[in-house]
Write a structure and sequence with these properties.
With 48 residues, the chain is of the alpha+beta class. It has one helix and two strands, in the order E-E-H.
């Protein structure tokens, strides 16, 4: 419920990628394949 203001609980499935401070850095509604998820995480990690 901590992310209810970012992603309503009724909108599953959804993927949230958090940055190092615990903020939502990316949001993808629906299912996400491993390639897309890897690219999202790599982008967030590069933004240091």
């Amino acid at each position: 419920m901590a992310f209810a203001n970012v992603e309503p609980p009724s909108s599953v499935p959804a993927t949230l990628v958090l940055d190092r401070q615990g903020r939502v850095a990316a949001r993808m509604p629906g299912t996400v394949d491993t390639g897309t998820l890897g690219a999202l995480v790599a982008t967030v990690l590069a933004d240091v």
